[in-house]
Design a protein that fits this description.
There is one protein chain. The protein is of the alpha+beta class. The protein folds into three domains: 67 residues, no CATH class; 85 residues, Acetylglutamate kinase-like (Carbamate kinase); 162 residues, VC0802-like (2-Layer Sandwich), CATH 3.30.2130. The protein is 30% helix and 27% strand. The strands form five sheets. It has a six-stranded antiparallel β-sheet. Strands 7-9-10-8 form a four-stranded mixed β-sheet. It has a two-stranded parallel ribbon with strand order 1-4.
Length: 335
C-alpha cells in the first residue's frame, strides 16, 4: 500500500501464495522448494513484489513458520530461486557484521567482508546478526549476502561471500570475530559404564526429543566407568535433566551434575587453517584474567570454550584485545 501511494506498481504475496513449500515441522520448518513463477511474472510486468517473510506452506496446505530469523531465510531462498546477483538484508539494530557485539566491546570493528563459513560459525555460536540457516542456504546456493543498515540504505555494510573470492584479503586476517552464547547449560553423568553403545543410549533419547547436543567430553575410563559431560541449549535444560535422569537410572550411573550458568565463547577465523598458536594465545589470555575453562571444542576455523557466565564480558573483551580485532586493518598477529 505504501509503495502504491508513492506512485509505483506493487503486488504482495504471502508464503503460501508464492508456494514456499516446507516440511511440516511447525515453528522451525525447512524449505523444500520455491515456486517463483508468480514473482517472475509480476516482475516482468514492472511490479515491485513484496513477499511476507518467515512463513511457508507444507504439502497439505498448512501454513508453517521458519523459526527465529526466518525472514532472512525467506529472502535468501527467494534470491536463490530467482537467480539474483545478491541478497541485501537490511537491519534496524546493526549496520553490518562486527568483530563482536559492539554493545559489549565499543572498539568492535565492522567487517567489510566475511566468508560464508565464518559467518555460519559466528551465527551458530551466538551472533544474532543473521540466522544460521539463512547463511547455510546462501552458502549452498552461492548467493552473496549484503548486510546493511535500514537507517542508511546507501551505506556499505558487510558482504558475506565465498572464501575463495576474498582469499587474498582473508589470508591477512587470523581471527574475524569473537562470538558468545549464553543460551547454554552443562550436564554431567557421573560413573557410567565404559562400554560400546553407552553414548548411543545417552544421546539417542535426547535427539528423539528434539534436543540439540553441542559439546561432548568423555573422561578417561577408570575401573570400567567414565564421566560423560555435554552441553544443551539452556531453553532445553529442564527437559534434558528429566530425560538424563531416566537414562542415568537405567545405566546405573552414580549421579547427575548440572550447571545452567555457563557461556560458550568462541574465536572464529579462516586464518586458523594455516596458522598455529591460536589456542595457546586464547588460553593464555584467559589464564591472565583468572578465567577458568570448563570445556573446549575446536573445528578447522573455530575454537570454543565454556566458561562461567559471570566472566562473559571480561572474556569477550580480553580476546578482542588479545587478537587486536579493534584495529583499523584487522589483526595481523600470526604468532
Amino acid at each position: 500500500m505504501t509503495i502504491k501511494s508513492l506512485g509505483h506498481e506493487s503486488i504482495s504475496f504471502q508464503g503460501h501464495q508464492v508456494r514456499i513449500v516446507t516440511d511440516n515441522a511447525h515453528s522451525k520448518a525447512k524449505i523444500q522448494s520455491i515456486h517463483a513463477e508468480k514473482i517472475e511474472n509480476a516482475l516482468k510486468k514492472g511490479k515491485i513484489v513484496v513477499v511476507a517473510g518467515f512463513q511457508g506452506v507444507d504439502s497439505d496446505g498448512n501454513v508453517t513458520t521458519l523459526g527465529r530469523g526466518g525472514s532472512d531465510l525467506t529472502a535468501v531462498a527467494l534470491a536463490a530461486a530467482l537467480k539474483a546477483d545478491s541478497c541485501e538484508l537490511y537491519k534496524d539494530d546493526v549496520d553490518g557484521v562486527y568483530t563482536t557485539d559492539p554493545g559489549m566491546v565499543p572498539s568492535a570493528r565492522k567487517l567489510e567482508r566475511i566468508s560464508y563459513e565464518e559467518m555460519l560459525e559466528m551465527a551458530s555460536l551466538g551472533s544474532k546478526v543473521l540466522q544460521a540457516r539463512a547463511v547455510e542456504f546462501a552458502m549452498k546456493h552461492g548467493v552473496p549476502l549484503h548486510v546493511r543498515p535500514t537507517a542508511k540504505p546507501d551505506a556499505q555494510g558487510t558482504w558475506v561471500v565465498e572464501e575463495e573470492e576474498e582469499m587474498s584479503h582473508m589470508e591477512d586476517i587470523l581471527i574475524s570475530g569473537v562470538s558468545f552464547d549464553k543460551n547454554q547449560a552443562k550436564i554431567t553423568i557421573s560413573q557410567v559404564p565404559d562400554s560400546p553403545g553407552i553414548a548411543a543410549k545417552i544421546f539417542t533419547p535426547l535427539g528423539e526429543n528434539g534436543i540439540i547436543v553441542d559439546m561432548i567430553v568423555q573422561n578417561v575410563s577408570r575401573e570400567g566407568h567414565t564421566d560423560m559431560t555435554f552441553t544443551v541449549p539452556r531453553t532445553d535444560y529442564k527437559k534434558s535433566i528429566i530425560i538424563t535422569q531416566e537414562i542415568a537410572g537405567s545405566l546405573g550411573a552414580r549421579e547427575i551434575l548440572s550447571d545452567d550458568k555457563i557461556t560458550k565463547v568462541s574465536l572464529v577465523g579462516v586464518g586458523m587453517k594455516t596458522h598455529s598458536g591460536v589456542a595457546t594465545k586464547m588460553f593464555t589470555a584467559f589464564a591472565r584474567e583468572g578465567i577458568n575453562i570448563l570445556m573446549i571444542s575446536t573445528s578447522e576455523i573455530k575454537i570454543s570454550c565454556v566458561i562461567e557466565e559471570k566472566y562473559t564480558e571480561l572474556a569477550v573483551r580480553t580476546l578482542h584485545e588479545a587478537f587486536n580485532l579493534g584495529g583499523t586493518s584487522g589483526n595481523e598477529d600470526k604468532k
